[in-house]
Amino acid sequence: MAIDARPPPPQLVAKLRRVLGGRSGWKGLLAQVLFVAALVWIGYEIVDNARDNLANQRIASGFAFMSHTAGFGVSQTLIPYQESDSYTRVFLVGLINTLVVSVVGIFFATVIGFAVALARLSPNWLISRIGGGYVEIVRNLPLLFQILFWYLAVLGALPSPRQSVSVMDSFFLSNRGIVVPRLVGEAGLDGFLVALLIAIAAAIVLPLYARRRLFATGKLMRVWPIVLGLLIGLPLIAFLIVGKPFSLEVPVLRGFNFVGGSRLAPEFVALTLALSTYTAAFIAEVVRAGILSVHKGQMEAGASLGLSRGQTLRLIVIPQALRVILPPLTNQYLNLTKNSSLAVAIGYPDLFSVFAGTTLSQTGQAIEVIAITMGVYLLISLVTSALMSLYAWRINRSMGA
Amino acid sequence: MSELGSVTPVFVRGEMVPQRPPPVHQPGVIGIIRQRLFNSPTNILLTIVGALLLYFTVVPTLKFLLVDAVWSGSNRTDCLADKAGHPVGACWPFVQAKFSQFIYGFYPTPERWRVDLVFALGALLLLPLLIPRAPAKTLNAGLFFVAFPVLAFFLLHGGGVQGFGVTWSADLASGVADSVGRAGRKLAAGGPIGSVIGQVLLGLDTVLVWLSWPLVALRDWIQASSQPVWLDLLLTAVAVTALVFILTGVRNGWRALATTVGIFVGIAVMVAALRLDRGGLPVVDTRMWGGLLVTLVVSVTGIVASMPIGIALALGRRSTIPLIRIFSVAFIEFWRGVPLITVMFFATYMLPLFLPGNFTIDNLMRVLIGIALFAGAYNAEVIRGGLNAIPRGQAEAASALGLSYWKTTGLIVLPQALRHVIPGLVNSFIALFKDTSLVSIVALFDLLGQLRAAFADPTWSTPTTLFTGFAFTGLIYFVFCFGMSRYSLSVEHRLNAHRRT
């Protein structure tokens, strides 16, 4: 009952089969052909319907509208913008606002998140319970709910500018936002800025140099006094040489609002607060899982070397935990950036709000506007995750993994 | 020895050290307090900071919600400090007055029993599904995931049906043939390459029309009869039952046959009970829906609809067929890379443009489609994790037994993979439940939307109305999400039982 040996299939055909259909062969090829046919059919239907519908509604298609005059004001702009500017300018204004709120949010979320994670891991029973309570409460309420809460209930309940809470008569907290003194540049500003830049560059380069020297020669170099001296000294010297490079413009209450100073809009404050506290709860869990993934013996080894708990965490545990932390941390950063689009609910002029909101309703060009908006968020997501995986790769390499 | 010997030992112990008592272990509350709160100066400081933090958050909150609260009243004046005679906390009469709005939105009052019935049925079917020891899981799951949504739709929305399986498949077939024919005619009128493709499509259209002719004729005959729905149901039942019986084989077919007949009897009972053949319950437009009802409808539909999408995408991503894999990856990455709110805008403003002009689609329905696709992409990644966790040997053993890809996947790989990822899925359901609040941005009044609408009511505008409303809705959201997360923890605990020592 020997089984007849089947002749091996001809090489060329086998290769073709593999190339065209993958491991499933001709069946796979058939599936692909059917799949592509279905996709093409759906795509054709979509395009055809969209063309008919747009023609019926008399909406022009294409991106020509981007150069038309926008004609609406934006409450917070970081680059010069007027109502007579084009939609392209509006798009840029929105994009910059989105990036600003994301970066500020990411910074605070990371700080709060690490703090809460350390609190949850603290040997102190009360502190760890408070950390746990924070995470549970914040994680289980919708973000939009929290944004509205901060905006309507907390910032909305602040007094009007006339009764605003003030610190030293120069910082004012009211329902129009936070008003702080503004730095106004004067004659010698350039020299001062150059000195500041040099100091910052030195503060970045010196520790790297010290680290390399430590690895090469084993000599520990105390860097932080030099860095601190540079950071304070250089600008100070420049300040003395050029003499008063800027002046402070203190806000003054005049009529019903403040004049002078710079203002953080309540929308911005509420959005940043909500985004960073919300994301911090998730980051705290990510960080906690990362720290717990480091073997307990590492902590004990640190203690037996005579390091304090803080030193052990900073020098031994967190560098190892970072490998576990980084990928999910990237996800949280991405979530925060994407969630900043909820600004539309409270009217902070971010990309989504000014573009997919106001521009869409003014021009009616739904397809183009939503495609651009989605494309930009997609691009931000892809770039951020690429950068973070680069960083993760470097960390892994430096760990010798 | 020589180096060691050169050093004169200073001290060598000559006798045993007396045993010391073990360190005192302080059990009980005092021990814990001493050990975990006050064992070092830093810890004492931390404890004091923590206690202050609690004092300044919890005490005012409790005071606001309970002690200073106003419990009864009819309008805003009852919640003002002048009338109450003390600093006023939460204004609970506001919640009482708006309660039905928070739950039902503007659903007509005489029809609200339908919503209650759906809530009750949902809870009744869901609870045994969540309890591990409850029997008949398959039946229960089938009822909850398939029968309940259909029933809930007819209960909540109302309206009846014109036909059944035969009519629908005939409609679908003639729709496809129409579309192919239309595309063929348009392309045939175009350029030289287009006209060739157009001719091919026109030929295909002719074939499709001939193939679907018997079905269409049957549909027309059914529609012309006096009881179209019942006749159609009967014919569909006979056709499906025969098909199932033939496919499963005469010897094994009896069980499948019984199931199929049971399902059709169930459908018949539902049609009869809701009088679907005679127009059904009065239609309540989805614009009238609101509050917790919309929140639950959107999240449950999202959860149920995103599962098959997620499974399909996860399998597609692991497929060996290149184009299907590439498409799945692109699809998943696209939906995961954009914010949900752009998906909602996509569904609200762009989707209608993609559909034929005579085909209008309900606003809630559009949002549901968007949410299902979005959540499907997220679920796909969770499920892929589960699929990756199944050892290769399982699939290889199945193929050694001669099972096909679909049988291997459906009977062996997927059940194990899904069990693995239940906690992950529950997490993504929690996220979905919270994200449903975004529908309030595209003009659907869910729980959060109703809350915002309620603030605008001047009858209740007091300094504390805002906080009361937030406290109440926050509590509802918290109860649902916290409940789900605790459940997921317990499932995780149970699934990991074998890992504990």
Key attributes of the depicted protein:
heterodimer; A: about 400 residues; alpha+beta; four-stranded antiparallel beta sheet; two-stranded antiparallel sheet; 12 helices; 8 strands; B: about 500 residues; mainly alpha; about 70% helix; about 0% strand
Helix-strand category of chain A: alpha+beta
Q: Widest sheet of chain A: strand order?
A: 1-2-3-8
- Approximate strand percentage of chain A: 5-15%
N-to-C series of helices and strands of chain A: HHHHHEEEEHHEEEEHHHHH
Largest sheet of chain A: 4 strands, antiparallel
Q: Evaluate the radius of gyration of chain A.
A: 29 Å
Task: Tell me the overall shape of chain B.
Answer: globular
Order of helices and strands of chain B: HHHHHHHHHHHHHHHHHHHH
**Gyration radius of chain B, rounded:** 32 Å
Helical amount of chain A: 55-70%
- Count of strand segments of chain A: 8
Q: Give the CA-CA distance, first to last residue of chain B.
A: 48 Å
Question: Roughly what percent helix of chain B?
Answer: over 70%
| SS summary, helix count of chain B | 20
Q: What structural class do you assign from the helix and strand content of chain B? A: mainly alpha
Mean pLDDT value of chain A? 82
Oligomer: heterodimer
Model description:
Chain A is of the alpha+beta class and 401 residues long. In chain A, 67% of the residues lie in helices and 7% in strands. Chain A is built from 12 helices and 8 strands. The model of chain A has no long low-confidence stretch (mean pLDDT 82). By secondary structure, chain B is mainly alpha-helical. Chain B is built from 20 helices and no strands. Chain B is 72% helix and 0% strand.
